[in-house]
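Box S2. Input/output pair 1.
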Amino acid sequence: MSPSESPIFPIASDDAEMEQAVKMARQTFRFFWREMAWEQRRIIPALDMAAIKASLSDPPEVRAENPDGFEVEHMWLADVEFDGRQISGTLLNTPHTLKSFKEGKRVTITGKQLGDWMYVADGNVYGGFTVNLIRSRMGKGERKQHDRAWGLDFGEPGLVYVVPPEYLGEAPIKKKGLFGSGASKPGPQDYAAAATVEHPMSVNMRESLEQTLAGDPSFVHTADDRGFNVLHQLSLAGSFDGVDVCLNHGADPNKPTSNSLTPFTLAKSLGWKKVMARLQQAGGA
């Protein structure tokens, strides 16, 4: 099963646990975007799957013509992009009652519409806060069926990893697998620590970026059709090493993108404090 085939799970509007799961997904979205940003730079893809869950509604005039339809549907989007203000992606689900959306349509949402995120690397699931909560409410047998249908081992209920443990210098995840047994119970991950540790690709890229900018100083100023240059991209991805190299090679810390965001405001949008401090040191605001 893929996100496009996930079943409907009715959620009460006053479900405090679900509200908390959504809140945690929003607070940790930075880890999803960081991984997506580096995935876009990989020659060989490393992610088996990456998607976000969005809360979507028909406009009032459409809803008025469909009074028996759902007011909100929570659906998954792939091919995700983020510009510091809005998130966009391709709808993976076929709506059950909404009339304004269809599978394959490009959808743009705000952060308030983000309900969850999830990526899969080496068979391990990262994120999936609402999925984890739903699984925790299942019996053991139902949970096994759920994971078998997805073809994924979502791990221990109550535990959500946001980055591979190796990023934190810890042992890789050891799971019993869908059909095996015997793995030791993992512990919770330190999200605050995960936010301060540099992504391995950021560290590894430093030398090559230095060489690129030394050979072609103009590259640091080259922008894409959104007005994003390499400093903008790396600021949003939380790459201290990349940002440091760009600034050392003359990147403008106050150059805005087409949507009027500076490198500092891009880093701030996801709370990359170390990157924010480096940009401020260079006069960025």
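Box S3. Input/output pair 2.
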Amino acid sequence: MAIRDILDPRAIVPRASGGSKRQVLSVIGDVAARTLGLDAVTVLDGLLEREAAGSTGVGAGVAVPHARIEGLDAMRAVFVRLETPIAFEAVDGQPVDLLFALLAPADASADSAHLRALAKVSRLMRQADLRAQLRQARSAEAILALLERQAQPSAA
């Protein structure tokens, strides 16, 4: 899975604001509606339902919210960088400013793709140097280039 396969440059928000977890998840829903043709409320509801089961704030200012969405035919993503970090009930208690949301098809056959995407994004976002560069990037294109470069398998 290449990053560009799931993350369209139009689904990257390099500067967003939101005072609460719900507001930020709503931004993700709005972006998914605009770029993927999904219903914003359906996306928000799916993300909120998943958050109710436990925060997707993985630490170091990062959250990986995810949900299964009816009508989606393939794994898709939305990336949001917040201007001001917000409380997100992350595992380390730190506020979140980088959100890499994953939206999976609702059907059960997508389980392995969903898990592989979660694992890949989690590995990517654990890289301190990448997080620092993402926080400095000023455009969607720059953010996508950073994510693609870091996601490339290293030549060994």
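Caption for Box S3: The first strand starts at residue 12 and ends at 16. The radius of gyration is 14 Å.
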